[in-house]
């Protein structure tokens, strides 16, 4: 048996799943037959609640199935049915063994915190946005009947939250510092809303702010910047497919467009075909090209991106004309073609350059040797004055006569000279060196030379220092015999030179010089 009506008061702040009331049915049976089962009869408001049986007390426990809201609905009414869990078939005719009761629930209005319009807020802002720029707003309301005003503030947890500020009354969020995407790409913080009438009632919501990359750099052509075209190319032939590269962090769906610059649009050489998939093709517009006429072409290509703000750049591609076979295989693209009209090959140019380098080296070496020689001459003339005297007054046996005179005797009179044989004449007999009187330390150089001169004049075997004696030797078998004075007598007066007159006009002057002293008159010599 159930009582007729049960009245319950439930606060709207009750949690889902919590017990909000109990009802009890009276059953005089005992034991197993006293077990009761409770069910909510479908009807008004029954879908917000649930009922279970307390196995110990056999009471019906009413639980909250969905949250309550006083502002939405203030009261609920539904019926609950109680029945025996175990029925005895012998007493079916006596039945029914169940009863119903009405349950009325009144929802109590509670002072609740503000409610945000979204469970999560996501915002976006470009880097380098000026400080104080509003980037978004959050909204919270007091749903109570009194409808109190709401105040907003940031839940400070770390220094990253200081990059933004929020208007306490409006809930608008603005930048507080300059943002750099390369430093921090995303910010995550919480906003708290409280009621003015009861600041202790607060609610919190998360805010995520994504920093967008500003399009700072224009796109550029990916390498290579240089391509080639065959001399036998046909119109419409694709010679190079180009792509674009952007130093910015390109967003998803970034698009690049390609076109010719305005100054190159009217030239009939090449064109750019945009494939609209971030690539483009360089196509020919002429039937054949000539390296002799023009070896290089410069094609300005404009590339533009789709980011904000839009950036574009002009990239110049270098197109080189090459010699190819019939299949389009490149055979030659070097600079040799430039010199072909004048008949010079690469090998000839290298040979010419090599010759020029060798000539320059020879000139440098020659100049260096001249300077060194001049320097040595000056040093020699300044260091030894006597060397100058001997150098100009020596009348030895010619430039090849290296043993005719020992210059050391003039420099150091104490040096004892060894007699050395002349190599420019052939002496008849060998002579041994004669002992010469020692020279005193203070002997005059002139006296020393005169003494040596007198000794050699009276010595018939001494090699003469006259260059005439060196070069006048006729050798064996000469008809005129030797003109040298090696075998001459001690004085010229003992010799007979009359035979010179028999030699003809060519020897007349010589015969007059060595003839009778009275017959020679120098004034008559012409």
From TrEMBL:
It is found in: Cell membrane. Its main location: membrane. Pfam families: CADH_Y-type_LIR (PF01049), Cadherin (PF00028). One of its GO terms (molecular function) is calcium ion binding. It comes from the Eukaryota. Cadherins are calcium-dependent cell adhesion proteins. This is CAD12 protein. The gene is Cdh12.
